[in-house]
Amino acid sequence: MQHWQEFIESQSAKMASGNFICDASELGLILVNGDDAESFLQNQLSNDISHIDETRFQLSSYSTAKGRMLSIFRVVRISNGFILITPLSMVETLLQRLQMFVIQAKVSLANASDHFARFALQTDNKDIIKHPDLPELEGRVIQNDSLISLRLGSLDQQKRYLVLCLSADEARSMWNEFKQHLQVANFDAWRLSQIKSGIPTIYPQTSEEFVLQMANLDLLEGVSFKKGCFPGQEIIARMHYLGKLKRRLFLTSFRTDQCPLPGDDIISLGAQSADGSGKVVDAVIDEEGICYCLFIAQIKKASNNELCLMDQPQLAFTSINMPYTVPEI
């Protein structure tokens, strides 16, 4: 996709909070195919993959035997297998991990990131929303021989899409068509959109840090408690049926020039060092200088606004509402 990268480098991108299009090359793609692809993934991922077809994608995760998430995926079924969408920085590590469990299964795993041009958009423009290559409904997929497009959850009454193109020329043509109505944004605009939507992302810095319920995947339909076994299933199920969840994913915002990074420690007010209170999941500063931050922390401390960044203790964390329902404590 060298031609696509050359084209993207010619675009002038900036931060935007709405009505934007952005390159999504920072998202990586894992191709899983073969006769046993479905059963293989069913035994590895948290969600019930038998519930999706080529018109509907799924949020899922991959955990260690101790129930700690290695990554979070959007899973798309294609004609000859599946595509797992996750941060590009996670792809090679995950491929190595998944390959360990192939054994004698008829499954092939590959990094497909270089084969697709990828871009994302968020908009309320009616001409774009009615485009024949963009799904009408949330959670749906449109596919043809050269294109895969996903409709994600809406944000601020704007529709959100992710588009994968095998043809750089087709991607460039769609981009130029949409660009007539949209701002060209950088990838941080998409990260901001994900953060405001309350959708967690796992990066190398936070891999193996959280059980999926801590990241609200149970609230985002990212796990099935009725399917068969998968790595970490016993711990995840025990927390669901018998345990009392002590940590959750929260959203906050504050003004700062120093954006926290995934994995940065969150501490109790007045603490002098890391005390296990929480960690940053992802954070981005918008065009107004406001930092939006997803973080996982002890529910009681977060609910009582008793937390701050260890590296910026003057920034007290005041939780703001998620765009989906979070159970009362």
Folded structure, characterized:
- The chain is an alpha+beta fold.
- The protein has 2 domains: 2-196, Gyrase A, domain 2; 212-320, Beta Barrel (Elongation Factor Tu (Ef-tu), domain 3), CATH 2.40.30.160.
- 19% of the residues lie in helices and 32% in strands.
- It is built from 8 helices and 18 strands.
- It has helices spanning 2-9, 37-42, 91-99, 126-129, 168-179, 187-196, 233-241, 299-303; strands at 20-23, 27-33, 58-63, 69-78, 81-87, 108-111, 117-123, 141-143, 147-155, 158-165, 183-185, 247-255, 265-268, 278-285, 290-298, 307-309, 316-317, 319-320.
- It has a 7-stranded antiparallel sheet. A 6-stranded mixed sheet has the order 8-9-10-7-1-11, with helices on both faces. Strands 3-4-5-2-6 form a 5-stranded antiparallel sheet.
- The protein is globular and about 55 Å long.
- The model has no long low-confidence stretch (mean pLDDT 95).
Write a brief structural summary.
By secondary structure, the protein is of the alpha+beta class. The protein contains 8 helices and 18 strands. The protein has 2 domains: 195 residues, Gyrase A, domain 2, CATH 3.30.1360; 109 residues, Elongation Factor Tu (Ef-tu), domain 3 (Beta Barrel), CATH 2.40.30.160.
